Amino acid sequence: MSCTFCKIVGKQSPSTPVYEDELVYAFADIHPKAPVHILIVPREHIGSLNEGGKDKQALLGHLLWAAAEIACQKKLGNGYRIVVNTGGDAGQSVDHLHLHLLGGRLLTWPPG
Ligand code: 5GP
Ligand code: ZN
User: Fold this and answer.
1) Contact predicate 51/57, CB 8 Å
2) Phi, psi values for residue 102, rounded to 5°
3) Phi, psi (5° rounding) for residue 108?
4) Low-confidence ranges of the chain (pLDDT < 50)
5) Residue 78 Cα, ligand 1 centroid: separation in angstroms?
6) Is residue 73 within a helix (H) or strand (E), and if so which, with residue range?
7) Which one of 6, 45, 57, 83 has the minimum C-beta count within 10 Å?
8) Across the strands, what pairs with 42?
9) What does the alpha-carbon distance between residue 46 and residue 61 come to, in Å, rounded to a whole number?
10) For the CA of 98, the nearest ligand
11) Among 30, 47, 42, which residue's Cα sits nearest to residue 88?
C-alpha cells in the first residue's frame, strides 16, 4: 500500500486526528494554509472525485456532512471553505479523495 492517506487512515503513518467515524477520517493538514486546515477523507481508497461513481453518492454526501460538522465543532460560524482539488490543473497532489476544510481567517475569492 503506497497511498499516503491510506497509510494515515490505517494508522501506519502518524496524523493529528480531528474526527472519525465508520466511513471517514479527518486530520490536520501537515502544511496548514489557514488557522483551521483539516483534511476529510473516506476510509476507503477513492482516487479522486472523478472516481466517486453513482454508488458512492451516500459516501460523498457523508464527507460533506462531516466537513460541516467539524466546522461547527471548530466554531467557524463566520465562514469557512470546502475545497476538493481534482486533477493536475487543480493541483491535486495526493491521489486519495480529500476535502480541505479551511477557516479562521478571511478567504479571498476567487482562489488562485
Ligand atoms: P492536494 O494538493 O492534493 O489538494 O492536497 C493535499 C494536501 O495534503 C496538502 O495540503 C498537503 O499539505 C497535505 N498532506 C500531504 N501529505 C500529508 C501528510 O503526510 N500528512 C498530512 N497531515 N497532510 C499531508
Ligand atoms: Zn488511499
Assistant:
1) no
2) -120, 135
3) -80, 160
4) none
5) 25
6) helix 57-73
7) 57
8) 24
9) 14
10) 1
11) 47
